[in-house]
Amino acid sequence: LPARKTGVQAVIFGNTGGDPRAGVANFSTRASRLLAAEGIAALRFDFAGLGESEGRDIHVYETDRTGEMRAAAALLAERGFGEIATAGVCTGGFHAVRAVVEDSGISRAVAINAWLIWEPGRELDRAAHIESMRSVYLRAPVQARKWVRVAREAFHTLVLSRLAGLQRTFFPRPAAQAAHAQFVRAAARNARIHIVAGAMDRSLEGLEHFGARGRWLARQKGVSIAILPELDHALTTKKSQTEAVKELLSFIRTSQSVADPATGRSHTSSAEIGFRYKGTAGVAAMPEVRSDT
């Protein structure tokens, strides 16, 4: 919690995959402390069956977490926080968005490197998931052969992504059709959803359910998409964490409720809607924070 309560904003963080609530490389812990320093409350908790929470026979995607998100929001509301957003990385981002589109009472979400659609029964590609979490190229010295390989893999990913996108456009799957309808209904409720993805992240393939690079989705009211060139999947590097926190803070600040002087009623600011490819200039470093599990 902030040292002094100066507002009503709060963020709920769910688990990243099967990792505990601290997040991979302690991202959720660090982000929570930085948010608190900005006067924004943050709640991290383990989903049932993960970390220190009891439960078993869970699936990182298919186990419904909407009720748990709703309970976390109710806890914050009891403490006077009325403007609540969900946020998460990978599967945590998936469940953050689900909590909004399924009308759980939460109207804002930030999803980082997250698949937005999961078809029940689909096999988890663990090898590809582990590979996507590697950040050796972001940490390694500039070496021509490594960056040539990065460029080749990026081109390969782009081609496959576009081919998959064409298939999904002409032969949409039932899960994608249902998701389209849910996002339309969420827009009608004035929900706000911000999607952040690394330029080489495999989650971009999931955006192709919504047109090239998710452009149909970006045109929906209240939805914004940011593609960041050096964001690694699980936010293992300090640079990736800094970029992600900046996106989160910007979203919270621009989506806060403001009063209408004519009616006295509050509404949500709609800045930063749409598609954005962001460069790397002007990135402030994330300070070192004590580890907390």
How is this structure best described in words?
With 293 residues, this protein is of the alpha/beta class. Helices cover 39% and strands 15% of the residues. It has a seven-stranded parallel beta sheet with strand order 2-1-3-4-5-6-9, sandwiched between helices. It has a two-stranded antiparallel ribbon with strand order 7-8. A hairpin with a 6-residue loop joins strand 7 and strand 8. The two termini are 17 Å apart.
Topology:
Blueprint: E1 9-13, H1 27-37, E2 41-44, H2 66-78, E3 83-89, H3 91-101, E4 108-112, H4 126-133, H5 136-139, H6 144-170, H7 174-188, E5 192-198, H8 204-207, H9 215-218, E6 223-228, H10 238-254, E7 257-259, E8 266-268, E9 274-277
Parallel strand pairs: 1-2, 1-3, 3-4, 4-5, 5-6, 6-9
Antiparallel strand pairs: 7-8
Helix pairs in contact: 2-3
- Decide which structural class fits the backbone: alpha/beta
What sequence of helices (H) and strands (E) makes up the elements? EHEHEHEHHHHEHHEHEEE
In whole angstroms, the N-to-C terminal distance is 17 Å
% residues in beta strands = 15-25%
Average pLDDT figure: 80
What does the radius of gyration come to? 18 Å
Main sheet record: 7 strands, parallel
How many distinct beta strands?
Answer: 9
Total helical segments:
10
Enumerate the strands of the largest sheet in spatial order, edge to edge or round the barrel: 2-1-3-4-5-6-9
Residues in helix, %: 25-40%
- Note poorly predicted spans: 129-142, 258-272, 279-293
Tell me, what's the shape? Answer: globular
